[in-house]
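Researcher: We're teaching a course module on how sequence relates to structure. For the next exercise, students receive a sequence and then see the predicted structure as tokens, so they can try to spot secondary structure elements on their own. Here is the exercise chain.
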Amino acid sequence: MTNFPQLGFGLGLRPQHYPHIWRYKPKVDWFEIISENFMDTDGLPKRNLAKIKERYPIVMHGVAMSIGTVDPLNSEYLQKLKALIDWVNPAWISDHLCWTGVAHKNSHDLLPVPYTEEALKHIVSRIKQVQDFLGRPIALENPSTYLEFTTSHISESEFMAQMVKESGCNLLLDVNNVYVTCFNHRLDPQKYIDALPLDRVIQIHLSGHTNKGTHIIDTHDDHVVDEVWQIYKYVIHKAGRTPNTMVEWDGNIPSFPVLNAELKKAKRAAKNSTKFSLPKSEKKEAPYSNFSTPLLDSQIKMQKAIFSGDKKNAASWIRSKKDFAPQNQLGIYVDSYRWRLIDVVAEDYPVLKRYLGAEKFNQLINDFVDQNNSDHFNIGRFAIKLPKFLVQKKYDKFAIELCELETAIAQLADAEETEALTSKDLEKFDAESLENLILQPRAALKLFAFDHATNRYYLEEVNEVIEQKTYLAVFRHDDVMWRIDLEHDEFSLLQKLFNEIPLSQALSEIKNELQISEEQLEKKLSNWFSRWIRNFLLKKITQQSESATIVE
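Model: And here is the predicted structure for the students to work with:
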């Protein structure tokens, strides 16, 4: 058996539970984080995690590595993942045996792979590349799947066993996924478990699901069912040990005591692992095929069907199941893709929805999802494309301005945390050096010039569209999004400064534009700079030109 860290029983870390954790310091052995929630964001999420990791061991679990895609490995993703690993120092890291997209598109779903020799060789090679880059082994989780490719040559569990053997990776065994997959494909859970190298299981997941009668959806939104507890006990009995175990609960998230009570059930089940009664498949397993389709073709075909919603040809490449037709199997992925993106985008635009009305807004979001594909591992970045979409569809200028404003508010909430420039910082420079300073905005800041009183409408100060030139700074400070109305000339000066020209040059240009006296200009500048410093708009100066002299 591999020498794994033995942490015990843990829980998935969710923001809803932070207050309880900080107040009561519950006796949980460890927490698991979703890696992507901290890879592409800064500010409050990172500070919250810093507080948690001071007290509890952390493990990292990813959903977007896309180990099975034929696309090249995503270097941006891996670099951000490694940076997070270096900061968190997790006990181990994991992801899923799946792919999320091909041709630089992303479904934000854990899509199944065909279990073929080509897929195995490809995935083993990619696992080795990832492990070499990260400098440590990874664990891959068995997925919940709703379809099987007709080209699969072997079972999922046999594929995973060979994958582990050839790549040197570990397993994250999701027991609920075992039950879901076996139920959906009419497989025997005991045969599935018996085919796995249980000595390589570093972690176990337990969660709830939604039973639709003919199939099960892995929703993580309810208590663990008895069938899953029975499989869990069998795994422990068969393995001769209790692997690190945790409970996932991602939808309809309950209070922390309810979640913790589920973990206590896991501890009791582990103590009684010899008393199990495994669920049996009532259906005879169909034989696997002896023909192949290139992995690229399989992935392009599935992705095209998901993005287009076209399920007509599903029977030609999806194994048929009694009472669970190929088009219905594919339909789960089609619907999941659409509703996931619709929900994520819609929640960022409450004011645009108020302006357009619910019916027109819902049609807009549906059209946007239909006509655009996500191309970033962070699903929250998909909405960045919405303002441009409104322009293409010739929406009115005010709708576009509202969309731009709400997009900035949503996206800047995740922007890099940068230290603000203070008046004390400026006091360190002599008069000559100040003229050569290049002032920059904090990362979480954006300037806007609108043709309407857009911010007033956003704040519900007015309910009608007022045509009026307005200027706005949108920024994050202390994890709160702020908006400051600017004067036209103030906006113009900030634009110049943020184009990385020296302060003296920017002041000279604005003076020529204003055609005012030195005294009037000084008064304006004093007011503007005072407000910028007071509201933390500018980035702290860390490095300047050689001509800048710091007064010690």
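Model: If you want an answer key for the exercise: The radius of gyration is 28 Å. Residues 326-346 form the longest helix (21 residues).
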